[in-house]
Amino acid sequence: MTSPSTPKKTPPSARAGAASDVAASYEAALEELEQLVAQLDAGQLPLDQLLTRYQRGAELLAFCRSRLEAVENQIKVLEGGELKPWDAA
């Protein structure tokens, strides 16, 4: 006999290593975030979908920020502890 209750899914933010589960890469997260912003800006979604997409966007934004911070820290190490301005020219 099986139990009548089914196990509940743990939300991504509550899982260990959640940041790596959010997106495959910074670029993928940024692309999805841009799509979500376009959907939210269109204003054509029902309220519950707006909330769900807003929450997903917040997860993606946190993921992107953490990836950028990690890269910045790596650059500081490579530059001997001093972050130098980027010269893209």
From TrEMBL:
Gene3D superfamilies: Exonuclease VII, small subunit. HAMAP family: Exonuc_7_S. GO terms for biological process: DNA catabolic process. Belongs to the XseB family. The gene is xseB. It is an enzyme of class 3 (hydrolase). It catalyses: Exonucleolytic cleavage in either 5'- to 3'- or 3'- to 5'-direction to yield nucleoside 5'-phosphates. This is Exodeoxyribonuclease 7 small subunit. Its EC number is 3.1.11.6. InterPro entries: Exonuc_VII_S, Exonuc_VII_ssu_sf. The lineage of its organism: Bacteria, Pseudomonadati, Pseudomonadota, Betaproteobacteria, Burkholderiales. Heterooligomer composed of large and small subunits. One of its GO terms (molecular function) is exodeoxyribonuclease VII activity.
